[in-house]
Amino acid sequence: MPYDFILKDLNASKTQKKIGTDKGLAKIGDGVVNLAYSVAKSIYLTKSAANNAIIRTGWKVSKEVLSTALKNAGLKSFAKSRADAHDIADTAEAIIAYIWLNDFLSVKEMVDLLVDNLEGDLYKRTEETKNATNAFTVLLKHLKKYLPES
Amino acid sequence: MPYDFILKDLNASKTQKKIGTDKGLAKIGDGVVNLAYSVAKSIYLTKSAANNAIIRTGWKVSKEVLSTALKNAGLKSFAKSRADAHDIADTAEAIIAYIWLNDFLSVKEMVDLLVDNLEGDLYKRTEETKNATNAFTVLLKHLKKYLPES
Fold first, then answer.
1. Domain annotation covers residue B15
2. What pLDDT, in 10s, does the model give residues B118-131?
3. How far is CA A48 from the centre of its chain?
4. Which residues contact A64 (CB under 8 A, 6 or more apart)?
5. What is the per-residue pLDDT across A107-144, written as a single tens digit (0 to 9) for each?
6. Which pLDDT belongs to residue A50?
7. Mutate which of B4, B5, B6, B115 to test chain A, going by most A C-beta atoms within 10 A?
8. Residue B1 predicted with pLDDT over 70
9. pLDDT above 90 for B2
10. Residues of B with CB below 8 A from A24's CB?
11. Exposed, middle or buried, B82 (CB in 10 Å: 0-12/13-18/19+)?
């Protein structure tokens, strides 16, 4: 993978906290998360649309979705101590960026995982929040095997 | 490419305006643009950093950068008539999403193109705006060959 040099420091001494509290990774991860979810949502809505309509859309995944998913996936140990929901969401984004930059999973593989785990009516906001949280929980659980154990 | 079914309508009757004025594509493109630029900026800053520092960062690419780049690349014909800067930036994002979803270029190929065309001191805001505009102009010019001629 040509970009792992921007992870050299993290890969040299990998710890859960170093990855999970890296602010730059969280910024990059914000892009990965929103892109993957937007495409997953478009695919899901297109697949379930009446009369073969094609739906392209985007959604900024909320901090609430990401922080709940991180906790549900059992990855809260990557966040700093006394982290609030915002910090925990940043940790989810940092982990996802770490995985993507290391090429453990591509954006398209993340999209596929999300699509497979979306359900319900995403046009209803509270239902979307619940179902997006579930899908990100599955994604984050899947990433565990690439992450340090402490 | 597994996702071109969410482009089926656009690919069936491709026109510059249909691609360039698609609001859903613009939302997806927003993610591609910010992700590609954030990684490109991180790589550029890391390569030019003193004492082998590793820089990871993100930047929300402004509408101004994207609208100027689209005009400089000679792709304004993809925007709606009487488009303002915001509309024109959306057109740049829609084109970039169209290219990415069709798999003509990956995020990582876009990152490479941007890195190769970044220069100057990106820690200075006006200089970053100018240099990001140049890099996106080169990227958009490169995409022309994948796009319809009218």
1. no
2. 999 999 999 999 99
3. 23
4. A85, A89, A129, A133
5. 999 999 999 999 999 999 999 999 999 999 999 999 99
6. 87
7. B6
8. no
9. no
10. 42, 55-58
11. exposed
Tokens of A3: 């970009």
Structural domain span for residue A87: 28-146
Which ipTM was obtained for this model?
A: 0.93
* A&B contacts, CB < 8 Å: 93
Q: Compute the distance between CA of residue B37 and CA of residue B26 in angstroms, rounded to an integer.
A: 16
Best residue in B27, B101, B109 for a mutation probing chain A (most A CBs within 10 Å)? B27
- Structural domain count, chain A: 1
Q: Is residue A18 part of a domain?
A: no
**Interchain CB distance below 8 Å, A31 and B27:** no
Name the residue among A106, A107, A133, A105 with its Cα closest to residue A118.
A133
The DSSP-derived string for B39-76 is HHHHHHHHHT-GGG----------HHHHHHHHHHTT-G
- The Cα-based distances of A125 to A60, A61, A131, B100 in angstroms read 12, 12, 10, 28
**Assigned token pair, B93:** 């994002």
DSSP code, position B105: S
What's the pTM value of the predicted model, to 2 decimals?
0.95
C-alpha angle with apex B75: B73 to B81, nearest 5 degrees?
140
State how far the Cα of A49 lies from the Cα of A99, in Å rounded to an integer: 32
pLDDT of residue B37: 97
Whether B101 shows a pLDDT value over 90: the answer reads: yes
> What is the tens place of the pLDDT at every residue in A5-60?
899 999 998 999 999 999 999 999 999 999 999 999 999 999 999 888 999 999 99
Q: Assess if residue A22 is contained within a domain.
A: no
CATH of the domain at A141: 1.10.1520.20
Contact assessment for residue B92 and residue B69, using Cβ atoms and an 8 Å cutoff: yes
User: Quick check: is A111 in a domain?
Assistant: yes
Could you tell me if A55 and A49 are in contact, meaning their C-beta atoms sit under 8 angstroms apart?
A: yes
